[in-house]
Amino acid sequence: MYINRLSEKMILQVAQSFPCIVIYGPRQVGKSTTVDYLFGDRYRKVTLDDLDDRNLALENPKLFLETYGWPLVIDEIQKVPNLLDEIKKKIDEQRLLWMKNGEKRELMYILTGSNRFELQQGISESLAGRCGVIEMASLSQAEKYKARGELFDPDISVLLERERNLEGAYRTRQEVFHDIFQGGMPDIVTGVSEREIYFRSYVSTYIEKDVRKLISAGSELQFRNFLSIVALRTSQELRYDTIANIVGIDVRTCKRWISILETSGLLFLLYPYMANLSNRIIKTPKLYFMDTGLCAYLCKWPDSEMLRNGVMSGAFFETYVVSELVKNFYVHNRDPKETLFYYRDIDQKEIDVLFIMRERLYPIEIKTSESTKNPTKNFSVLKKYNMEIQRGLIIDTCDRIRPVNEEAYTYPVSILGM
């Protein structure tokens, strides 16, 4: 069963503006399925997982492109990054023909990849100005529940207006944690695969196909352990030295492996807001897994009830909220790192998320409990930024938007990104 993706509209829009589009995202989040749904009846497809096709692309990229022609979908493009130079030549040649003949530009190539680590430089050097880039993640709650998925706007008047059109969207805390435990991988959500078996295979495939050549020989088991150690630290500050000591690697290797997870789309790093730099502000990013189901599997949580009542319930709830915000940005082709930040200083004053938009600052606290006392107690520290501070949000499992005080409103997690 195909679940319509909110990114479909953006993919089609970008496809009208460039002769090539690149769709990034972790393995099995639905990149190829979405491309096939949108373009499958018109575009030929080749995957570089096929050894014969990959060898041809590696040894003779020009012949490879001449063999398949265009329009063409090339899956797993990161397997042959040197193919990008030849794609550039083909695009430039065709551009001249279009200009000479006064013809309308068309979409020639659709490239999908599950790891940007090796591709980022090639894309920026070879295809700059020739391709549009779209990031895809696992299913958001808006996609799972077939909502419109509008771009999240923290302005309370906007949120109240949208809430009126979302009847029946409320989910209980128990239901929310079921979604957190399940995650957003399409094969699990649609019931195609059994969760435990799926994630076991997913981790093995990821290490074997995406990571093996990026880490030192014989480090696969160590990297698998590293994955679990990082998962146990979701929503925490990223301490490279601590993780390195536990895993038994040096800090430099730890930084490289974190970078691999981030460019693979498995991790998102949330950075502190650094306007008016101060030595009293913590400068370390916080790490979040982008799929809470994968994170729960790596942490070995057996079911959603134990996760909901366990010591990591707060960390997973915060991870869920941040990942939903990031997915919402991806759907609308926005860079979350330009808008989402956090605050923490050496006096242990912290605000979970700072949403910076239109030169305004919206503080957001993330709470698993609806009865948290004085959730806006740290908002006053934001006055140092000399920005226009707006009413903030307390995102929890409440059933509707309500005022907490003059500084903030509670906001139901179940309508986030809807």
Descriptive overview:
By secondary structure, the protein is an alpha/beta fold. It has 2 domains: 7-135, 3-Layer(aba) Sandwich (Rossmann fold); 141-415, no CATH class. Helices cover 40% and strands 16% of the residues. It contains 17 helices and 14 strands. Strands 8, 9, 10, 11, 12, 13 and 14 form a 7-stranded mixed beta sheet that branches. Helix 3 packs across helix 4. The chain starts with 6 loop residues before the first helix and ends in a 6-residue tail after the last strand. The mean pLDDT is 92.
- Please tell me what the overall shape is: globular
Total beta strand runs: 14
- Mean pLDDT, all residues: 92
Low-confidence stretches: none
Gyration radius (Cα, Å) is: 22 Å
Fraction of residues in β-strands: 15-25%
Based on secondary structure, the structural category is alpha/beta
Query: Share of helix among residues?
Result: 40-55%
What summary fits the major beta sheet?
7 strands, mixed
Number of domains: 2
Number of helices: 17
Question: N- to C-terminal separation?
Answer: 21 Å
State the main characteristics.
single chain, 418 residues, alpha/beta, Rossmann fold, 7-stranded mixed beta sheet, 14 strands, 40% helix
